Request: fold
Amino acid sequence: MADKVGFNSTAMDTTEVLKYLDELVFAQTGKHLDSLQIAIIKGVLSGRKYADIAKE
Reply:
């Protein structure tokens, strides 16, 4: 299933993941990720829980 959403077996860094997700969101909504959405994604990718991210 991962291949269906554009991921392959090579590792992506956080910047690449954010760019990819932003492109997907923009393609579907016509809007880019905002700073709050980016902060949440970065936190989750670094292993933090949403509750901890939301406190900031």
About this structure: The mean pLDDT is 85.
